[in-house]
Amino acid sequence: LNPDAVTREIREAATVFRQGAWSFLGLAQEVKSADLDVLIYPELGMHARVYTLASLRLAPLQCAGWGHPVTSGHANIDAALSSEAMEPAGAEAHYRERLVRLPGIGTSYPRPAVPGPVPRAVLGLPEDAILYLFPQSLFKVHPDNDELLVEILAREPRAVMVMFQSRYPVITNQFVDRLSRRFAERGLATSGRIKLLPNVPHEDYLRVNLACDAMLDSLYWSGGNTSLDAIACGLPVITRPGEFMRGRQSAGMLSILGVPELVVETNEAYVETALRVGRDRAWRDSLRTRMAEAGHRLFDEEEPVRALAEFLLGEFPE
After folding, report:
1. Which of 114, 253, 269, 299 sits most deeply, having the most CB atoms within 10 A of its CB?
2. Taking the model in full, what pTM does it have?
């Protein structure tokens, strides 16, 4: 098997690393034979095989991280490792597992290495527009977002939405058709108002962030990595937090950074804040400065790791 960069990084950091082309039963037996005290799944929900594996009792204590920020629903997952900054009051009711709130965003997230900027034209973006980055995978974008995007474009003629195509053309086409209908309802022309970029390497994706004026967070399922990338690039993120943790990730990050102005409670406030960030360069620059000054509270934090260690050790008293 040819490991990717992430797999190589894990292998180099681990005391013991095992990799093989196991059958499902063979994989379960391999994990069971390791005689683990704790089994932690970084996420459960993105891969059917791993999700099924988590239904088995392979270690005395089994936990799931928030890489997929919903309950696993499994009786054999004992704890959900989440973020103190992102969980709402009463969040215990949202999980089949015992909820463990770790400090901050719940992880020690390395600050992305931000490349140097390039002219917008190099990225295929207009030089004289107000660029709003809306980077979520299109299959995650609930139709309720459409009204917000169209309202911003209707009220600001210079506004352009920057998005990314899906890996699957049918999803891209369905999204474009849906958004075009909303444009038509408002009597707006779509030409030039939406820039659907192809998927690019991460370094070029960060350059797109650097070229934009603001990031618009998606309703109900907010940005995780996308918001952290935007913040690392100094890009203000406008978010409306939802009822559940999966819709509150960006809000948690922004609360840590101390920019509550970007966290709004209504669709109207979302549009107004987005327009002000785009139009008011002085305010936008002040937000960038405050975010940069507080970035040390968000990236490379050791406190969540210490708290995780304390939780795990507390589960196995001598």
Report:
1. 253
2. 0.93
The whole-angstrom distance between residue 46's C-alpha and the CA centroid of its chain comes to 14
Query: How many CB atoms are closer than 10 A to CB 70?
Result: 17
User: Taking residues 283-304, what's their average pLDDT?
Assistant: 95
Instruction: Give tens-digit pLDDT for 33-50.
Output: 999 999 999 999 999 999
* Residue 307: count of CB within 10 angstroms of its CB: 18
What strands lie across the sheet with 159-164, from one edge to the other? 194-197, 159-164, 130-133, 214-216, 237-238
Per-position DSSP letters for the chain, written without gaps between them? ----HHHHHHHHH-SS-------HHHHHHHHHHT--SEEEES-SSS-HHHHHHTTS--SSEEEE-TTS-S----TT--EEEEETTTPPTTGGGG-SSEEEEESTTSS-PPPP-------GGGGT--TTSEEEE--S-GGG--THHHHHHHHHHHH-TTEEEEEE--SSHHHHHHHHHHHHHHHHHTT---TTTEEEEPP--HHHHHHHHHH-SEEEPPSSS--SHHHHHHHHTT--EEB---SSGGG-HHHHHHHHHT-GGGB-SSHHHHHHHHHHHHH-HHHHHHHHHHHHHTGGGTSS-SHHHHHHHHHHHHTS--
The pLDDT of residue 4:
85
Token pair of 210 as six digits: 């650097």
What value, to the nearest 5°, has the Cα angle with vertex 84 and ends 79 and 90? 75
Residue 76 and residue 95 in contact, taking contact as beta carbons nearer than 8 Å: no
Contacts of 208 (CB under 8 A, 6+ apart): 123, 125, 133, 162, 197, 200
Mean pLDDT of 214-230: 96
Tokens 């005689």 sit on residue? 35
Residue with tokens 């998005």: 163
* CB neighbour list of residue 180: distance below 8 Å, 6 or more residues apart: 190
What is the residue whose two structure tokens read 């948690």? 252
